[in-house]
Amino acid sequence: MLAGVLLVALVFVDALLAGPMRAWAERTMNANLNGYTVRIARVRPHLWRLAFELDNLVLVQNTHPEPPVAEFGALEFSLVWSELLRFKVAGTLTIQRPALHINLDQIEEEAQSHVSLKDRGWQKAVESIFPVKLDQVKVVDGSLLYLSSGTATKPLRLTKVSMLAKNVRNIAAAKGTYPSPVSLDGVLFDTGTISFKGAADFLREPYVAAQGELRLDKVPLDRLDPLAQEYQLQTTGGLLSLNGSVEYTPESQLAHFKEVLFDKLKVDYVTSKATKAIEKVHGKQALKLAKKVRNAPRMLLKVDALKLTHSQLGFVNEGVSPSYRLFMADMSLTLKNLSNQADQGSSDFQARGSFMGSGTTVVSGAFRSTATPADATVQLKLDDARLVDLNGMLRTHADVDVADGLFSVYTEMTVRNQRIEGYIKPLIKNLKIYDRQKDQGKPFGKRVKLHVLQFFAGLFKNHDSKAVATVIRISGSTHDPQTSEWEIIRKLIGNGLSRAILPGFLVEPRTFEPPKPRLPPKPVQP
Asked: Cα–Cα distance between 22 and 208 in angstroms, integer?
């Protein structure tokens, strides 16, 4: 009976305290916030279990109040009874249905503000209403939304977020230790998944340190198309998966991914006269970033295997008339051991695809991404691409088009010690330039030109292989590589009149040995 009366009394007191506590909590939190304001719909105290809840919180940026930066279904604070029995005070915080909304105006406001994010008073605002060290923080059904004019139809969204952080109130830990287990799971861009399992040091100064295993599975990349367009990239489809370990501390950063996979991705780089200036800016930015991360002393970025499967890469030139597009279809790529540190060794790559949808292409080689000057080798084989598919480029750059023919090319190149050595061997089979139906209606002078070109094509064609071919040797400084026009012509004529140049790599490709260091002279014996 007494217990029932006491329970009723506590419920009655809870109801009496709800209104004053709401006003107190809102006023106290806002006093600690800088540039932001919080509104609380209701406070529900639970004295009988030493807990209280803040329901339907709304956080707004003062300069851009719409949309709200964040909305919270509830913040649930409670004391840990097991700790109280040990004469210790510790609390837990459960954040129900947090929804963060971010737009470009709000981001720009933060970037231009003289107040840093960590000085906005978030932690103080929470501690002001619950001055108890938190032992556990839990997020239930959270979401993050970035919305701009470019992402209106397909917003960048992280949903169904669940997070659990334990032992948050650890005493200051030694550097390199992470006493607080952390796990996070969510849905990225509606269909992909993200998970993190690791640990953190929440008391590290000047900000939190963490490490763990990160995994993304089948994240759709079409949401990033508006951002990619700013860099002249047009993307269609694509799924990203990766797994590896990350570590972020005030002293160093590490990201070591075992595998990064792009699947079913279509990307075109689009250039035009209007984009020439911004392309130069982007180029300088890329070089600056590369120099910054190359051999950075407190940063390790490493990918054991970067893969591209069932994809298409293209180049679109809209700066000429007529415009044209070159592409590699059904492409697969494997790049191994990519790193920003020189001591991690060289990177190997191999790619296969179909040039213009018809020419079987195989590329392989190696390079040192951190080498200065460049250090790379490449071997490329392209077999039987349809020449008619290249008519757009031929019309633009050679003022000619063809009616039939198959194009092949074989090349081996080495770049080392500021020198380049190698060759390019192009072959064209069954070349037909002039066609009465194709060229009907063209000016007389153009038709004469096509006839002349057809005559020379027949003159230089080998009667056994039915191919026009030559070998272009390239040698010299990377700043001024040299070719021999007379050798190109000699090979062209020789293919047509005597020995055929056959498909494939040269049996004895021209190579070079890097200059050996000079040894100091031996001392003269007295």
From this structure: 31
| pLDDT range class, residue 518, cuts 50, 70, 90 | very low
Q: Which two tokens stand for residue 340?
A: 């920003």
| Residue 182 to residue 308: CA distance in whole angstroms | 31
pLDDT for position 434: 85
What CA–CA distances, in Å, run from 211 to 15, 400, 402? 44, 59, 59
pTM value is: 0.84
Helix (H, G, I), strand (E, B) or coil at 356: coil
Q: How far apart are CA 478 and CA 419, in angstroms?
A: 5
Residue-wise pLDDT for 291-328, tens only, equals 888 888 889 999 999 999 999 999 999 999 889 999 99
- For the chain, how are helix, strand and coil distributed in percent, rounded to 5? 25, 45, 30
The tokens describing 2, both together, are 């007494």
What is the residue-wise DSSP string for 37-67?
EEEEEEEEEEGGGTEEEEEEEEEEESS--SS
DSSP bridge partners of 158 = 144, 188
E strands, 466-523, in order: 467-469, 472-477, 480-482
What is the number of alpha carbons within 13 Å of residue 344 lying toward its C-beta? 22
- Please give the DSSP secondary-structure letter assigned to residue 349: E
Q: Please report, rounded to a whole number, the percentage of residues in the chain having pLDDT higher than 90.
A: 45
Residue 262's pLDDT is: 97
Which residue do the tokens 């490449």 mark?
378
Q: How many residues does the chain have?
A: 526
Q: What angle do CA 410, 449, 318 make, to 5 degrees?
A: 60
- CA distances in angstroms from 263 to 237, 256, 308, 309, listed in the order given: 9, 20, 6, 5
The Cα–Cα gap between 500 and 403 comes to: 24
Neighbours of 409 (CB within 10 A): 20
Residue 166: how many other CB atoms lie within 10 Å: 18
99-113, 271-285, 347-361 — most confident range? 347-361
Cβ contact 355:383 at 8 Å:
no
Pick from 397, 466, 458: nearest CA to 433: 458
pLDDT of residue 510: 46
Nearest 5°: the CA angle 353, 355, 360 is 55
What would the two tokens of residue 296 be?
Answer: 């950075």
Q: State the Cα–Cα distance between residues 521 and 251, nearest whole angstrom.
A: 47
